[in-house]
């Protein structure tokens, strides 16, 4: 059995396969709200905190430096080229995120990772990947292109209970690993020399942080599509609320969880007809990004 969906490509007969349903944005919205919003928000926020700490730059967020776009590219390739479902898209998102991280870091590395260079290179990579994603969707079959486009808007209302539980379990596991690596991260924030003097292998620790950060954002993308700006804003908001000199990982996780929950409530109930949660985060995050850029420009002018 299936459902006929009208698109600009014509009427499309969509099979009601559970994995396709997730990608198409159908399912139990209440389940998504209860099980999906907070783990995804926490994953995005902690990923943002990891990369902002690693680069010592508030713009060093995975959605700015290309890792989110790379994860989405990997997921689109899995859906369009391999014909995969949710599981394949999740693997594709992880591979795409890691591959993008490798490219960005290779282009950026000059005797260490310099935050400003990473942001500039990442913005360029993001622009290129966005063009690649659009090209892939234009060449895909109508059904797949429609599902990937809806999913790409950042939607939390379509996942099944099983998929949400699996994603939540994955986020919890990754957050435990992040907690185990947090001591090394704090040493890296003080500089490689100090980190080495305390017995931390700077190169290995930095690689572990990158892998964990990419895995978190890839899992979030695989679950809900690329939701922008939560990773950028949540760590900074948490640091200001807690008056922390650094970026608090636990505080970032909680802030991201409730920030995305609030955005999803706005998307579902405050906007007539409802919109994808990614639309709300883009509006709010875009305003925050403008303020942040102005603040950074003023700092450099002094």
From TrEMBL:
Q: Where in the cell is it found?
A: Cell membrane
Chief place of localization? membrane
- Pfam (any one): FecCD
- What are the protein's GO molecular function terms? transmembrane transporter activity
Q: Where are the transmembrane segments?
A: 32-52, 64-84, 90-109, 116-136, 165-185, 205-234, 273-294
User: What does the UniProt keyword field contain?
Assistant: Cell membrane, Membrane, Transmembrane, Transmembrane helix, Transport
Q: Does the keyword Transmembrane helix apply?
A: yes
Q: How does it sit in the membrane?
A: Multi-pass membrane protein
Please, which domain of life does this record's source organism belong to? Bacteria
Per the record, its GO cellular-component terms are: plasma membrane
Q: Which GO terms describe its biological process?
A: siderophore-iron import into cell
Its family remark reads: Belongs to the binding-protein-dependent transport system permease family. FecCD subfamily.
Q: How is this protein named in the record?
A: Iron chelate uptake ABC transporter family permease subunit
């Amino acid at each position: 059995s299936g459902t006929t969906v009208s698109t600009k490509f014509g009427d499309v007969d969509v099979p009601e396969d559970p994995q396709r349903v997730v990608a198409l944005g159908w399912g139990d919205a209440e389940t998504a709200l209860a099980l999906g919003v907070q783990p995804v928000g926490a994953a995005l926020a902690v990923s943002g905190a990891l990369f902002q700490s690693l680069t010592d730059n508030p713009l060093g967020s995975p959605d700015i430096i290309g890792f989110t776009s790379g994860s989405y590219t990997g997921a689109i390739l899995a859906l369009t080229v391999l014909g995969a479902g949710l599981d394949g898209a999740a693997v594709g998102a992880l591979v795409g995120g890691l591959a993008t991280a490798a490219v960005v870091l290779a282009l950026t590395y000059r005797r260490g990772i310099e935050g400003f260079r990473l942001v500039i290179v990442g913005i360029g990579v993001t622009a290129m990947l966005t063009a690649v994603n659009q090209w892939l969707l234009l060449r895909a079959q109508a059904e797949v292109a429609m599902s990937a486009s809806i999913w790409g808007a950042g939607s939390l209302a379509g996942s099944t209970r099983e998929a949400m539980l699996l994603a939540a379990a994955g986020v919890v596991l990754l957050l435990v690993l992040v907690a185990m690596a947090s001591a090394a991260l704090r040493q890296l924030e003080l500089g490689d020399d100090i980190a080495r003097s305390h017995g931390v292998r700077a190169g290995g620790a930095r690689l572990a942080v990158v892998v964990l950060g990419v895995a978190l954002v890839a899992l979030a993308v695989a679950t809900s599509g690329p939701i922008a700006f939560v990773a950028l804003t949540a760590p900074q908001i948490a640091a200001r609320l807690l008056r922390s000199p650094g970026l608090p990982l636990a505080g970032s996780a909680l802030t991201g969880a409730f920030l995305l929950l609030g955005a999803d409530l706005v998307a579902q109930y405050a906007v007539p007809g409802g919109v994808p949660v990614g639309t709300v985060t883009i509006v709010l995050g875009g305003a925050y990004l403008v303020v942040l850029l102005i603040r950074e420009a003023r700092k450099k002018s002094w």
